[in-house]
Write a structure and sequence with these properties.
The chain is an alpha/beta fold. It has two domains: 120 residues, 2-Layer Sandwich (Nucleotidyltransferase, domain 5), CATH 3.30.420; 153 residues, ATPase, nucleotide binding domain (Nucleotidyltransferase, domain 5, 2-Layer Sandwich). Helices cover 36% and strands 19% of the residues. It is built from ten helices and twelve strands. It has a five-stranded mixed beta sheet. Strand 2 and strand 3 form a beta hairpin. It is globular and about 55 Å long. It binds adenosine-5'-diphosphate and zinc ion.
Length: 292
């Protein structure tokens, strides 16, 4: 089966044709510029292609309420020119196939469940730690939506003992994104995150913040697997701190082997690597096809 996939990021779009096994047959990517110009590239890629369904995983916030007049829109994003943009409408009109539209992180969670490190499970949590921080969750086989959709990057955290800043989120200051996103690291230390040496104290602090957040998510969502992607997690030394701190912070409260004895297999880097997002969009397309 041929499926269309769009991974819409704040800096770049990835478009692909793939199949139900997570194979990418053809792909392209381009910078996210104005909506008009970006959609022109999207149309150029998909026009003339045959596909049975389309999946879109996008930055947000987005409107997922099927009964809302602005369903399928990117809503209140601070990204210039992208507020109140109808994403699904023009694609639906042009291609007339079932379309699944969701957050990039919900897509990535579904991708890891279908094709990656959460295969065979019926719950998982996917977090991206990049320009922003977002989380997507699957519980009892279903993506979590609700009132809007989860915005896990904005939970409040206690500050590290050596923290010198107030946190950088314009809405909440010391939320997860305000303390642990790539830009937060760069503002705190005054250098690009990828220029910080592996033994820099930044990474222990990063691990401390991510572990706090994960403790909260473990206790609220009870995921069977946690997957951490995004540019910042390329610093794989952070995983050691996270593993150690999650066990310490939970302090024996959750008596499960995954946490007590196999934490390194419980909190992992995406098996799909940099393809987590686009494979997630493919998984969304599969879902659109199944439920059409
Ligand atoms: P986006 O979130 O924009 O989709 P990324 O997930 O690549 O894209 O996140 C970009 C952020 O990740 C940048 O702000 C940068 O600080 C950080 N980053 C990217 N690569 C690395 C790296 N190798 N080491 C540390 N931080 C990185
Ligand atoms: Zn915030």
């Amino acid at each position: 089966m041929r499926l269309a996939a769009i991974e819409a990021g704040g800096t770049k779009f990835v478009v692909a044709i793939g199949d139900e096994f997570g194979n990418i047959i053809k792909r392209d990517s381009f910078a996210t510029t104005s909506p008009q110009e970006t959609f022109k590239h999207v149309f150029e890629f998909f026009d003339g292609e045959h596909f049975e369904a389309m999946g879109i995983g996008t930055f947000g916030p987005i409107d997922l309420d099927l009964h809302s007049p602005t369903y399928g829109y990117i809503t209140s994003t601070p990204k210039p020119n992208w507020g109140n943009v109808d994403f699904v409408g023009p694609l639906k009109e042009r291609y007339q196939v079932p379309i699944a539209f969701d957050t990039d992180v919900n897509g990535a969670a579904l991708g890891e469940l279908n094709f990656g490190s959460a295969q065979g499970l019926d719950s998982c949590l996917y977090l991206t730690i990049g320009t922003g921080i977002g989380g997507g969750a699957i519980v009892e086989g279903k993506l979590v939506h609700g009132l809007l959709h989860p915005e896990m990057g904005h939970i409040l955290l206690a500050k590290h003992k050596d923290e010198t800043t107030d946190g950088f989120c314009p809405f909440h200051k010391n939320c997860l994104e305000g303390l642990a996103s790539g830009p937060a690291i760069e503002k705190r230390w005054g250098v690009k995150a990828y220029d910080l040496p592996v033994d820099h104290p930044a990474w222990e602090m990063e691990g401390y913040y991510l572990a706090q957040a994960l403790m909260n998510f473990i206790l609220t969502l009870s995921p069977q697997k946690i997957i951490l992607g995004g540019g910042v997690m390329k610093q794989t030394q952070i995983f050691d701190y996270i593993h150690q701190y999650v066990v310490e912070m939970l302090n024996g409260y959750v008596q499960k082997d995954e946490i007590l004895h196999h934490i390194k297999d419980y909190i992992v880097y995406p098996k799909l690597g940099d393809n987590a997002g686009i494979c997630g969009a493919l998984a969304l397309a599969m879902q659109a096809k199944r439920t059409a």
